[in-house]
Batch of 2 targets.
Target 1
Amino acid sequence: MSEIESANETQTGKQESRIFPPPATFQAQANVSGMDDYRALCAAAQTDEQDFWCKLAREQLQWHKPFTQGLDESNAPFYTWFADGEMNVSYNCLDVHLTNGNADKTAIIFEADDGTSSKISYRELHQKVSKFANGLRSLGVKKGDRVIIYMPMSVEGVAAMQACARIGATHSVVFGGFSAKSLQERIIDAGAVAVITSDYQVRGGKQLPLKAIVDEAFTLGGCEGIANVVVYQRTGGQVHWSTRDIWLHELTKDQPADCEPEWVSAEHPLFILYTSGSTGKPKGVQHSSGGYLLWTKLTMQWVFDLKPTDVFWCTADIGWVTGHSYIAYGPLAAGATQIVFEGIPTFPNAGRFWSTIEKHKTTIFYTAPTAIRSLIKAADGDATIHPNKFNLTSLRLLGSVGEPINPEAWMWYYKNVGRDLCPIVDTFWQTETGGIMMSPLPGATPLVPGSCTLPLPGIASAIVDEAGHDLPNGQGGLLVVKRPWPSMIRTIWNDPERFKKSYFPEELGGNIYLAGDGAIRNKETGYFTITGRIDDVLNVSGHRMGTMEIESALVANPMVAEAAVVGRPDDTTGEAICAFVVLKRSRPTGDEARQIAIELRNWVAKEIGPIAKPKEIRFGDNLPKTRSGKIMRRLLRILAKGEVITQDVSTLENPAILEQLKEAL
Ligand code: WTA
């Protein structure tokens, strides 16, 4: 494909002049082919919104009892979709494939950490999930119960989610990198009745305990509601056992391989997934069954252009929303063959992604910018693991998710992994949106590096000012969505008020969705570029972190009097966590300061998880504050970047403190 030069300005200050139209061969075979097709879908959604969504819901999903209404706005912003329809998500992901020719098709290729792999067909997965579901039922888990899943990347992890869906239990997956304390908090908030975990997880050649962390969560208290802990035996390593524990293989061994699904309302909560917000504790984002599945399936077809012969690989973990929508649900509903990868991108070396693509003839590859950036570095240092050393000719489509992709990383991905042939879909979405909101459609949308381009059909993205007024293209503002869509968040578990305040604030009229990101549209193309979070949420390696959460963890340490956490740009991880700390004792310096910094980093790992460890900690006698006592985070951000403060600091109570906080340890 040729690189067409045009004077396309992104208005973010830098000039992005490259545009990549879809290759003719890709466009010719695409599910949505050409911009006219895309525009026709958008027009259909606008002309008759109800009809548009209802038709798709009837075509895409099988209903046990048909719905009579699509969107119901009577209790906005608690919108509902297809609410009087009955269905089952697991039925729509598995049973439907037993009779449509997919029964013996490979559903999952499991690529283990050690490089061995295995396959499971749709028929076999259906059996596995059915036995699992029957096992859970035999323990008394029933419709509406909450089940915590704390599992490694595995077929069993996906099966656990599907089994819950099958019996109408609402799952809450907790990422395997979270600490016992984080796990305990989620168990309590969700009011869970069971935990599904694994003895160990295997990553990068190491065995890391999971079951032991569940045990530790119990010792922290408040987990009495958990009647059973189901344990998948991954390694056979040593574990402590108590009367509430049961091995998965023992639970399922005598269970029938068939399990009548629990038919639930389309609005039945399929899952709760905890994510960081700007204040307080993580919020339990609650998703539906029908609307959620409709959108995850549809976006597989539109954004990933899924075809029956594709081998799809999403590298996300099932502990994050991407692993929910584009591993556990979307690909299965769409009947895809997909790779589930246990390991890490750098083991046994940083060529692992490329060798795995080659090995399984992957056709669609979906990963995060952080991974790409770290593999660029690795390939620069070691030519033997450069993507050009592997046969990647099976690839036809690439995707990116989780954070802005910088144009340089985009170009490297495009040239070296996609060999100038594969469109890249830069997909913008959030835990709350359930599925992709803005993205190129690979057979239609001309690509611009660094832009997620345009909203998908039916998604009413817009940019407004603080009062909710539309802004013209070229002017940055708040990203909002003006109309409800099927896979949207339904509420925050246990906290409907916080749901309204966070996502449908009164200042914007109370019925348009506030994403929490800033964005700007290009003057000529109308393309969207995400400019970053507008709240106190950081994005570190594509993982969402609340600055307040990390601050609370730090001040919980007996040594700490006060802490302020800010993000600073990082070449590899996108953002890095920088903490400014005041100790109860005098300000440490030199080796002592370095030692305390290590202790505090480990403390945060214990409180939240290793992913929340500050990259940098600086100590001061105080923090920069206004006379009314407000911490000036704006100034801390400048210091964290290593830049000089040029603005007026006369409103500060204690300007001298800035000098102290300037230097990194
Ligand atoms: C950011 C992940 C730019 C954004 C699916 C959003 C992105 C947050 C992109 C949600 C993208 C996600 N370009 N920024 N393509 N995708 N983000 O909930 O700030 O873990 O609000 O969902 O990631 O992160 P979450």
Note: DSSP finds 19 helices and 32 strands in the chain.
Target 2
Amino acid sequence: EAKTRGPGTVALYTQELEAAVVGRTTLESELRTALAGTVSQFVLHYQPVVDLRSGEVVAVESLVRWQHPVLGLVPPDRFIPMAEATGLIHPLGGWVLDQAVRDAGNLTYDGRELYVAVNFSVLQLNDEAVLQVRQVLESSGLTPGRLILEVTESALVQDEDAVVRALEALAQLGVHVAIDDFGTGYSSLHYLRRYPINIIKIDREFVAGIGTSVDDEAICESIVHLAEAVGAMTVAEGVETPEQYAFLRSLGCHHGQGFLWSPPVPAERLPAALAACGEVPVPSTTSPP
Ligand code: C2E
Ligand code: MG
Ligand code: MG
Ligand code: MG
């Protein structure tokens, strides 16, 4: 696929290409080099998050990509686990936080300020991260309440008390915390009890089944009710169809994001993507779930 593209375009990343070009240890050492380099090989894309009632954009989520010189744009699932395993998640996470606030910290939509959501590995949640968040907030002047940290439980937590301490310190600062990919992996009810959580993100695995799987629909509904019961907001991920939008809206799910409105786009294309979100029809309240 990559070789069919013309000169000046980047290769289309595939796992086959990666395997053909570099092995795992090479990619790891290249990740190290990329992070040490002065010219960043990383880039953030942004996806709008929409209020399901009004259809208005309320936030953007930053999603990191690695602009690899040979492989092209490498998706985060291919290198975040490696970064977590090697400790490189700390410098990478620091860069992401800084860049996201720089790119999106003063974004507005229709004159309203938007929330900025940044993904955080649970392994990043320590005292140092709290200091870093405090520094970024101070130097940027971003209102703490406009920053959302989306925590993914991608690895088992060794020191749960340290994570709880960090989350409580972040809550003290006024930063919002979301639990990402809720219902999958290690993200469990246990963490809902232990962590101060403001937002639950319904994993797109469940959203994808709306309209075809009564089980997935029941799971979405239960998560919305659960969130209400613990006083958290809900955000649905991976909303692709008007039917999914209508169903989630009728459940009372607060926010949504997905290809229905926009894929993640580079910062320079964000204003156009935000404007296009306004064109997506809001389902009528009478549409059946
Ligand atoms: P996530 O935070 O749950 O992000 C949602 C993923 O779903 C993104 O994949 C996004 O591009 C994709 N997506 C959004 N809308 C749709 C849709 O309508 N349909 C489908 N099929 N997919 C959709 P992406 O960008 O590849 O990111 C994957 C994961 O990598 C993220 O999942 C997050 O856990 C992690 N990640 C991304 N950026 C960072 C980061 O800066 N730091 C950390 N620690 N993890 C990150
Ligand atoms: Mg996320
Ligand atoms: Mg997610
Ligand atoms: Mg995810």
Note: The CA atoms of residues 54 and 271 lie 19 Å apart.
